[in-house]
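TODO from last week: model Catalase.
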Amino acid sequence: MTEANGNPNQSRPESAENTLTNRQGHPITDNQNTRTVGSRGPTTMENYHLLEKISHFDRERIPERVVHARGAGAHGVFEAYGKVGEEPVSKYTRAKLFQEAGKQTPVFVRFSTVIHGGHSPETLRDPRGFATKFYTEDGNWDLVGNNLKIFFIRDPLKFPDMVHAFKPDPLTNAQSMERFFDFVSLSPEATHMVTFIFSPWGIPANYRQMQGSGVNTYKWVNAEGDAVLVKYHWEPLGQGIKNLLQKEASEIQATEFNHATLDLYHAIERGDYPEWELCVQIMSDDEHPELDFDPLDPTKLWPVDQFPFLPVGKMTLNRNPEDYFTEVEQAAFGTGVLVDGLDFSDDKLLQGRTFSYSDTQRYRVGSNYLQLPINAPKSRVATNQSGGQMQYKVDRAPGQNPHVNYEPSSLGGLKEAPKSGKEHEPHYDAKLVRQKIERTNDFGQAGETYRSFEDWERDELISNLGSALATCRADIQERMIGYFTQADADYGRRVAEAIRQAGGDTKPQGTGADPSKADSKGHEAGPY
């Protein structure tokens, strides 16, 4: 088995013929780590391999989203509490939407599955997207996340490869658990997410009854320019949380593959409006050596006993879209869409997503996607940008000189806005390197999560992993069992036994699902 903190590819002999290169023919010596200022970030713009890789990845599908293709959406309202926990929210952020108790901000939410196509069953094991667009007085804020609070990887350079491994085989066009586990067995940081995905948490019962999370670490900035690290969490209120066992999901899928979309639509139609409370965890903006992991690592949970969930407001979804394509399909989100008082952390995955999301929207929907009503802010827009596919108006201010589309100008053009507070100016003093973070601890929280599950959740997790891994080659099985064992000895032992019981020692390796069942069970018929 490979070392937890080593490069899993180093132990495999390679020939010149199968050396990884980019499209320019340059050999790639590190396909695991972006180049950052110190091992913790931030990421720099001259990461040519990352930008080329992500840019090509964003353009792989036309016109369906590369990920999050299957989705449903609804309109609603966010009401601020004016506090964060019991403290004034202004202590931590100057973002206007949070400041006043009772202040309401319109929102649009798109829920989705991640890996599967636009008409795939909503019962498949997969993370669920939870993206919220706040139409604030300062412009739009997009809080883009998933139902689960962590992710598979921590470096954006690995994202296209991860999705390729989870998507269908380029030859057979069929998804394969062997491809999935081949990737994650060489990415030990994925062990925690795999533990969640193959448990009942991998199949939420519907969109209404699931949690949401921003996944990545962000910053809040106050009027003095002081910043804290934050994580965002949507917690369901009256409707609660429900997940499905695999056998229950299979039963639903046998007769209905749109159940989550219809559940959300009909609940809102009958006035049963789903509600979520937005909570934040707050941490001082430093390295926190007292923790056994890096707080910027998106594969990790922040301990709730040390960093409690602090409520800041409530969201209610109370109106269905009038047209699915116009609103849900064309809705475009981006992790870089922040308003004053909200900021980026040095989370590498967040910084990669921030480029990728808006880039893919310009490709998928068009360069003027922000002029579509579902994406346009409710506040005024005045830019010097124009042209591009499907432009239907110019973002011009009242009284602006139409001859001036640049800034600065003394001829009646647009002017810069006054600052609303002091700039947040983080300081960096580190070498520009390609390194993973020092405190990886890839297995500690996976074991904690395994032990925190109820007995029935652990049983379901082991059963699902045994069935999936039984279709994989022996070396892949061994690597995954090794990871699970490092997380928890009982966890590894039970998965190994479940693989044996599922026939992993005797099945042809790598075959995946048996495609001959329909042939053997089919009923003969004559021509007509």
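Done. Residues 348-364 form the longest helix (17 residues).
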